[in-house]
């Protein structure tokens, strides 16, 4: 089973969540390819995976980060029927739309036929110890959601 963890980060918080997701996957004996946006150039790279963890921080007023716009366009331009996605990101509760980019991303993916396997995981800034546990639980929930029964 092929799993990718793809993320965008400006100050490292979303990257810390991505690293924790990879660790959570290892604990369940799954491996994953981890990639930072904008190093993903084609949707073909995304299509190769059975489960894609996609992480973004939120910018502006609930907006996508600038470096994600090409990828969002790419996602919008394809059908993702039956493909499993799990969304995560960092934000700041002092903004009106906490992790708002994740709501927008979820809507786009669902409209294009994707299965978003759990509610997006929203972390305030960088994960603390308690939130790391939350991330490990999220990994378990999303693996179940994706109905992955075979180990990599
Ligand atoms: C100009 C600006 C706009 C932001 N807008 C939002 C927002 O609308 N919603 C939110 O939850 N966080 C917002 N944030 C907070 C970032 O998403 C937050 O700092 C996040 O942890 C950054 O993640 P990163 O370390 O992965 O880059 C904003 C930050 C800046 C500097």
Automatic annotation (TrEMBL):
<feature type="domain" description="Flavodoxin-like">
    <location>
        <begin position="3"/>
        <end position="143"/>
    </location>
</feature>
<dbReference type="InterPro" id="IPR010087">
    <property type="entry name" value="Flav_short"/>
</dbReference>
<dbReference type="InterPro" id="IPR001226">
    <property type="entry name" value="Flavodoxin_CS"/>
</dbReference>
<comment type="function">
    <text>Low-potential electron donor to a number of redox enzymes.</text>
</comment>
<dbReference type="GO" id="GO:0016651">
    <property type="term" value="F:oxidoreductase activity, acting on NAD(P)H"/>
</dbReference>
<dbReference type="InterPro" id="IPR029039">
    <property type="entry name" value="Flavoprotein-like_sf"/>
</dbReference>
<keyword id="KW-0813">Transport</keyword>
<keyword id="KW-0288">FMN</keyword>
<dbReference type="GO" id="GO:0010181">
    <property type="term" value="F:FMN binding"/>
</dbReference>
<keyword id="KW-0285">Flavoprotein</keyword>
<dbReference type="Pfam" id="PF00258">
    <property type="entry name" value="Flavodoxin_1"/>
</dbReference>
<comment type="similarity">
    <text>Belongs to the flavodoxin family.</text>
</comment>
<keyword id="KW-0249">Electron transport</keyword>
<dbReference type="GO" id="GO:0009055">
    <property type="term" value="F:electron transfer activity"/>
</dbReference>
<protein>
    <recommendedName>
        <fullName>Flavodoxin</fullName>
    </recommendedName>
</protein>
<dbReference type="InterPro" id="IPR001094">
    <property type="entry name" value="Flavdoxin-like"/>
</dbReference>
<dbReference type="InterPro" id="IPR050619">
    <property type="entry name" value="Flavodoxin"/>
</dbReference>
<dbReference type="InterPro" id="IPR008254">
    <property type="entry name" value="Flavodoxin/NO_synth"/>
</dbReference>
